[in-house]
Amino acid sequence: MSSAPPKPRPSSGQVSLSRERSLVPVGMSTILPHAAKQVRRLEEQLLAQVNRWGYDEIILPTFEYLDVLAPGLEPELIDHCYQFVDRTTGRTLLLRPDATAQIARTVAMGLTGSTLPLRLSYRTSVFRYETEHAGRGREIFQVGAELIGLDDITSDSEVIDLMIECLQTIGLQSFKVSLGHVGFIKGLLLRSGLSAQGQKLAEQAAARKDLPRLEEVLASERISKTAARAIREAPELYGQEEVLARGRVLAAGDPALLAPLERLTQVYQLLCAAGHKDSLLLDLGEFRGFDYYDGVVFDVFAEGMGAELGGGGRYDHLIGRFGRPLPSTGFALDVDRLFRTVAFPEEGSAAARVDYLVAAPGQASRRLTAVAAQLRRTGARVVQQTMQGRDAGLVAAAVTAGLAQQAASVVLVGAPGMGSGDVLVIESLAVHRSGNLSRLAKQVGLADLVAAARRAQRKTGERS
Q1: pLDDT at 320 over 90
Q2: Following CA atoms 29, 34, 35, 40 in sequence, which dihedral angle do they give, to the nearest 10 degrees?
Q3: 356-376 average pLDDT score
């Protein structure tokens, strides 16, 4: 994985004009057509990959009742939710802040049936308030997958293996998956004798890799120097197998610490055996940002991106908060960050936006619609437009419109002197952008044009 990172490019929805920015809420964005095409391509590739692994898509509601979803959300996340009152019931609604909690609630309610394991996937937006300088959007586009009902090392490795394959599928060349176990550092904190509040503050500092803040928390409470030293060291323990060896030294024979290390070791070995060793980085300080994680956890990073592209982990107790305990694990990827990281194929300026522009004078509008419909049924991308002008002027107007629409070919219907079964066709507009393109027009039978379009679409399908 030594290829050069792609050149940085703006967010999928970045708007450059200050006036337009002032008309859009901070942290929200409009994704313009070219970027939208690439974003949708990313999403489709990701969903197709998780589908191949047997994950079925679920579409989640945009709003949730706060009192219903709150058991699955930590207080800090609730503080970052967008909340408002339901006019019908008077209850507090919130915009979806987290897809995993929604899936946990859905499964616990029995809406997905009783058959286990469940493999669910989703593409959705989550909404969280972030301060303007935080560098994060307030609407986050995600694609994710959840594996529910299994608690073993193969299910842990499955979701990580799947995530890695998703990243490879969309062409991400260089990335690292930071792999850890929440139980290790939580065990260190619990063993140290920190107060409940001190443990929470230390967890938050460790999750952010905020070592100065972690030092402040440890200094504010009376714990042994040995315990404090181990806690300070854990967030900086990252690398390969040597990390596990050092972790066992810090565990000092404590079964509560050795058990997560053993689980992490087995998952790491499975992923290495699957050929992913070069993409893995062991991190005993890996904590994620949500308090529902309780097992193997992971983040994914890439060169040139200062924040994680996504991540996930095991959350065996989350669904139980809604009444039905089930072991679970999963991941989510940030589509906007992937957009800024992945190198898309270059699309030259001569590339066609549509296959055919079908044009006709106003009096032939019915035939215009019929011909466009026939071409669309072949699978071609077709736009239609009525034209002003007569004879050569009509052809010239159609060519001008075709160039403006970036059409590969122009089909002129209802031109004077043509039979009802014929059309004028001007092909390869992208190649012949200058000169008198009217001279390239040739009269062909509509049936022949439709057959040629069908053959072209068949070849395109075979290449893709």
Answers
A1: yes
A2: 110
A3: 93
